[in-house]
Amino acid sequence: MWLTTITVGLVTLILIKWLNDYVKRWRMPPGPFFWPIIGNLSLFSGRMYLTFIDLAKTYGDVFSLKLGMTDVVVLNSLDAVKEAFMKKGADFAGRPKMLSMDISSEGGKDIVFTDYNPTWKLHRKLFHGAIRGYASGQNLQSKVHESLKDTIAEFTKMEGQGVNLDDYLYQLVYNVICSAAFGVRYNMDEENFKTLMKVSKDAAERFGQGFLADVYPLLRFLPSPTVTACRKMMDQILGIMQCHLEQHKETFDPSNLRDITDHMIKAQKDAEEEGIQDINSLTDTHLRQTISDIFFGGTFSSIFSLRWALLYLAVHPEIQEKVAAELDSVVGRDRLPELSDREATPYMEATMHEVMRMASMDPLSLPHATTVDTTLRGYQIPKGTMVMPNLWALHHDPDTWGDPDVFRPERFLDENGKPVKPAALMPFSAGRRACPGETLGKANNFLLLGGLVQNFRFSISKGEGPPDLTPDEKGGGASCIPSPYKVVMTCRK
Ligand code: HEM
Questions:
Q1: Is 435 annotated as a binding residue?
Q2: Which residues take part in binding heme (predicted)?
Q3: What distances in angstroms separate CA 152 from CA 187, 194, 345, 441, one per listed residue?
């Protein structure tokens, strides 16, 4: 009897909540029918950015979905993203609360996954200072050149063979970012390098798929092998960051700051000495989290950009030869490309824009959340609604680009060959949460890709058949990473 009463009570509560959600939906952007409890869960799987483009044809460029019981608003056009993230920046600058984000940020103590609050502001400011000091201009250039020289020597030994360059690109990029972050460079066979690369790859894959407990928070209290595995991976990675932090503290000299880790320690010590409130936002956990954001943000983005760029250039040899010819005429063969060459190499710049557009590595950016009850296009969006900008849709809109599925760098050049950048190209997102690593990311990609193409011709292995340009399933819907491929390198010198 009591079992029946409980069941009837529960079903009634679920139905009331469902009806209530439907009433609320009348004032929100339109969207498809959703079920009690599961909502539109099936729409959030696979390449969901493509599903969202289809849904926009029926419901318009701003529509609502239910991720389980959470309201989600999808922004499917440039106008919608501009209105939300630029005109109403602060209203849309939050982050949703999810178990996966909580685990990787140790409870929101980083920049990426923390909500829009003073701690986030402080760490973004520190981030910019750290990048300016240790990973920009001449400083960045010399780190890239040093790493490139080793990689060029390695690649030369493999001339003519079909090689998957993945691990070599990891080493190349790690040596730039890790030397800026904590003054470390790695050899391919070093244990620390292998561990960091393996755990980072596994973590990106596992976290990219998301957890069921992200959708149903109560499940976080039940045991889950995926969650346990992810916690273990994060412990390993953060353990490495903490180790660097402690070693730096032992040898810290305020008159000789060596890298980003020293920069962060200095901020902590200044706050301690001046007794300012920031001290609670500058614990060792916050410090290792910001260092870890720089490590992950700086490495994955560059590795995946390079992998996409080399793939597109191998598939389009005529474009690769144009890039190489431009580098030849501006840089020559006696030195590596420098940041001062960027202005004189518009075709290279246009090619990098086209890679970013075609690949759309973060097709749905990162999820935002509304910080207050707000409105968009006259619809009401309650506080705490998850907001997903569909950057893939912006980058592949036929009305904007004409032939979005064609790899054509010329679309980023005007009739005089000068660079143009349409507003709809937004790989770094926009507004208050826009990627703070944009300047570093672009400079790094220019120097790395420029150095590689200046020295080698990359072609598809003869026996391999046409390479797969669709993103690897492992990225889930959250990131577009290239499927594994092999290239043959031929020295240009
Ligand atoms: C090709 C290069 C890169 C691309 C395409 C890229 C893309 C993005 C995107 C789409 C976001 C989400 C923005 C949003 O929430 O709307 C983001 C955030 C972020 N990126 Fe990047 N990124 C790149 C390079 C970098 C680099 C080099 C770093 C650091 C060294 C970095 C650090 C971050 C951080 C810390 C955030 C979080 C910002 C916040 O939540 O306030 N990124 N990035």
A1: yes
A2: 435
A3: 14, 20, 21, 21
